[in-house]
Amino acid sequence: MEVNTEIKSTRNMPNHLETTTLEGRNKVLGFWLFLAAETVLFACLFGTYLALRHQSMGGPESSELYDLSLIAVSTAILLTSSLTSVLAMAKMNQYKLKAMLTWLGITVLLGLSFLVLEIYEFVHYVHLGHTFMNSAFGSSFYALVGTHGAHVTFGIVWITTLMFQAAKQGITRETAPKLFVSSLYWHFIDVVWIFIFTLVYLLGKVG
Amino acid sequence: MGTLLVLIVFALFLVAIFTGGYNKDLKGLLEKSTVWDWLTTVDHKKIGILYFFSGIFYFVVGGIEALLIRMQLVVPQNDFIVGDTYNELMTMHGTTMIFLAAMPLIFGLMNVVVPLQIGARDVAFPFLNALGFWLFTFGAILVNLGWFFGNAPDAGWTSYVSLALNEYSPGPGIDYYVLGLQITGIGTMISAINFLVTIINMRAPGMSFLRMPLFTWTTFATSALLLFAMPPLAVGLLLLMFDRLFGANFFDYTMGGSSIIWQHLFWIFGHPEVYIVILPAFGIMSEVISTFSKKRLYGYTSMVFASVLISFLGFMVWVHHMFTVGLGPVSNSIFAVATMTIAVPTGIKVFNWLFTMWGGEIRFTTAMLFALGFIPTFVIGGMTGVMVALPPADFQYQDSYFLVAHFHYTLVGGVVMGLFAGAYYWWPKMFGKLLNETLGKIHFWSFLIGFHLTFFPQHFLGLFGMPRRVFTYQPNVGLENLNLISTIGTIGMAIGVLAFAANVVLSFVKKEKVPNDPWNARSLEWTIPSPPPAYNFVQTPLIRGYDAWWIEKQAGNKSMKPAEPIGPIHMPSSTFVPFLMSLSLFIAGLGFIARENFAAGILGLIMFFITMFVRSFDRNHGCHIEPEEFDQANKGVKA
Amino acid sequence: MVSRKGIRHFLTVFVLAALALSGCAGNESLNVLAPSGTSAEKSLDLIKLSLFIMMGVFAVVISIYIYVLIRYRKRKGKDVMPKQVHGNTIVEIIWTSIPIILITILAIPTVKYTFDMANTRASEDSITIKVTGYQYWWEFEYPDLGIKTSQELHIPVGKQVNFILEGKDVIHSFWIPALGGKMDVIPGRTNTMPLDAKKPGVYQGKCAELCGAGHALMDFKVVAQEEEDFNKWVAQMQKPSPVQTASQKQGEELYRQNCLGCHAGTNPNVQGPDLTKFGTRTTIAGILENNEKNLKMWMMHTTDVKPGSLMPKIDYLQPQEMEALVDYLMSRK
Fold first, then answer.
1. Minimal CA–CA distance to B341: which of C101, C56, C45, C44?
2. Residues of B with CB under 8 A from a CB of A
3. What is the pTM of this model?
4. What residue ranges do the domains of chain C occupy?
5. Domain C246-330 belongs to what architecture?
6. What is the ipTM score, two decimals?
């Protein structure tokens, strides 16, 4: 067990630092399994939404509500943040701490702007009478998109935390697995969003 | 607001104790105490024991609830426990037995045994393991708090909506169910991931997948099932919580909701759940039968294949719980046929057990007796399982006592008997002492006879028109005698459980220690001392085939071949963070149940995330045990 | 020694089985094993077929089990080293394929019956009854005959009855064991189920899905009558019941003041059973025999008799007023 050793030089260091220790390998595998469970969780929320999406009970319907241009911007932002997160991981594997932190910072900022847009969107809907409580459609919409939003929020806090840790401790056998799984998580959120974009917004527009 | 203040004071008090800011001496005293040791342990064996005893405790609680139920039903039109109170008892009996008894008993054995069976020093995530246990414990307490504050959940363990909605179940009962199970569910999820990673990543050299003992295999299958089955339950509970606490409309049809969604989500979890609890019992059977027949498990590969197939099929059949919902003949037929196919891998298992014994040398220890009692009992349960899988027949069985009889044959005759077999078998490994065989035999026979006496008549009660979950029945329609017999039978089961309790107490009083391998067994856990030292293996063993220990014994070796030189062993540090995190969620749960603006609930959640955040910065990497300390550390867990 | 234990174990089971079948053989009015309708017969056919196949399987398993336990038990003073066999492909294939064959045998009639039993076609020879489940009583409406009643269902023998099942509050399940299987009554959803009765008689109906405190007492009766008797009943249900005596008149007034709100459906929150023809029924609240004494008892102690019942206790009337109310209700035939 050599988890405690700091890495002094980047020469002769492995390419995938996150899986050099057993702890790291466990963390990465465990996280993949966690994402599998998360997939099922979102699948259930999608199923619920698809079953209830026409039950607007006289309130505004999905085709009247959704503003695809706004959603397109959100989507672009989130997809870009996935790319910056990939770049951050690439920098991590080259042991370039500063560059990695920069890319992570951009990722977090993009995540934040996505969140701001989403909050704006929700506030707008509430003004139009589309709330969590007024119909099954509203409940299922906010449960699904809101759960995704909660995941984004958690991801932002998490990545920020890890940025502090990395800044303090450097890229080590201990921080690398953490950073790696947080980026996995971020990609996962992105993939879920792609499904939300198609199954909620595009399908909702079609009717 | 009062609750909130109490909670804040309580939280501050705890923080003061944990940080030593309150009294340094007290902190020192606390850290040396046994209670503190168990509260903060991350040792998989100790966590296993904690799970195991929690399971036994709730098994007794659920058993007492069952006895009260049978007392109410002993004569027609009895007025001992009626209406809502009966519904609370019946609901809590089911919820307790499934979530709070069967699951922790299984996790207990899995925790103690699986790392030992694969030659690992620990599980993959010791911290998460402890977290899983404490989440379970606090969730379990929350579910049961309803007995003391407000009312207990009363909509059945399935908690069908719309009965479980505010309008028809006012009071906090269902809230306890929803939030308590949500918290235990998170713990279960974490444990499942832990076991999967442990089994995939932590096997000793030479321990290939197809050399793993069957209990490890079934643990693997069960954990995989949990991984995919818990999220639907989590979503179901989340939606129910939204409906009850936050005015959402997922299940209220007047607002466009649908009560069928709950049934789907619940059973997508609920059906795999029955395989989640039965598969480890299958694993225990395989170990026990093989050991006490002195024979290699017959058809090992097909056993593994059957376990995996059962878990796969377990996800394809949930609609058979909903045949009478009116989903139409097409869906009913598809799910009926899918359900019947599960009989094939299950049949493979039964025949493999029989042929393991064939040509062997069978020793009738208590563990083996339970395994042997399991076979015919479970076969009856499996047969009625095929019978209820046929929709036209199921229209009659559904929600009748026939169904009650069926699932008790599988869950008591299968899971509970399997767990008893496992308890008698692994007790010496867990505590270094044997359970008494005479008491064990009293336990077995009274439990078995009592069980059949209780549940066999219930098949006929169902066929004679008695629906389940009724607090009474009318006289003169042919239901009296069978109900009476059924109630008498519970006495046998109660005596059996009392005998077991006496046996447990006796084993702790007893001084006599057992050797490493009291049963002449076959797998790795029997190569190390009973109870095992904290680090399990001095040297990681080299595995040369299935039944690794048996192979070495046959080759005349006294121990396993080591795969590494003797060296310092890394051990994780104890931590109170899992306890604190679980406590925070408990406070959150309680706060949401108490409603009152959810202030306490939000406080609990904040506490949870702060602990999690602080933990992320924690750089305690544990300690190393040096070779010269091995003898001293060899004392193992205190029983 | 061991074999005796094994045998004792199975003797217990079989004695129990015999006991169950002979000593307490159920009651014809709610017995799945004594079907009086086509649907129940089909269910029973399949129950029997599956039971016989399963008994065969059980016999095989138990024979091997008993043989193995006797033949291969550890004998005193002997220490055998069994041969460590791995398995046998042919044997394993056999016990995999035989269950597959058995399941196929079961699957064919299962699928056929599943489709048959879902078939509600309206024909000249069928009648339609709308069933609505409430906590904790049943409403039966004959849309073609303009009849609405509760707790007691009258059907003509030999005709297919197409039930339309609808829920209002929580999920119930409509079950008449002697006539056929059950079907859930779900709020916001309409289910259909065809049943018929082959011989006249009074059958018992149950609610089979947990629906709250009074679930155990949500019983109803099914009166299967020959066509002629059924038509008489229909005629009686369709003609008005005049108020004759002074006592009945007073009762009518009391009824209007105290009961009508719920029992005529004008109260939007609580719906009580229709009592227009209360005097024709054999039971009160589905569980008590219909006589004046029980009726008074029921009205005074509703929630004690049926926990969770939404009907408040009518214990504030003068004895004389009670008499008049009962008199009025009993005259509704």
1. C101
2. 124-125, 189, 193-194, 196-197, 200-202, 227-228, 230-232, 234-236, 238-239, 242-243, 246-250, 252, 255-258, 261, 264-265, 268, 570, 613, 616-617, 619, 621, 624
3. 0.93
4. 2-117, 126-238, 246-330
5. Sandwich (2.60)
6. 0.93
